[in-house]
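pasting for ref
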Amino acid sequence: MTTVTKTQKIYDEFIDFIAQGTSSERVTKFQFSEATKEQIVDLVERAKIGDLSSSEKTELEQFLVIEHLIRLAKAKAHQYLKSVSD
């Protein structure tokens, strides 16, 4: 599978989650599939020892951007939930 295809699968996983309709509570609980988690752990471990191809480095960088956006969404969702419970 090419890097573009792998990265697209990661995007699709989160986009599908959003497209199904969601709530702030569901956003706070979002997690990637086990397959995606394993793929990223592998890339991170191999990056630590300098064993990534340039396309794998790109894949990891793109995942980190997605992960950052998800963390921001989760933080906002937590803020929203806190504000409506006060």
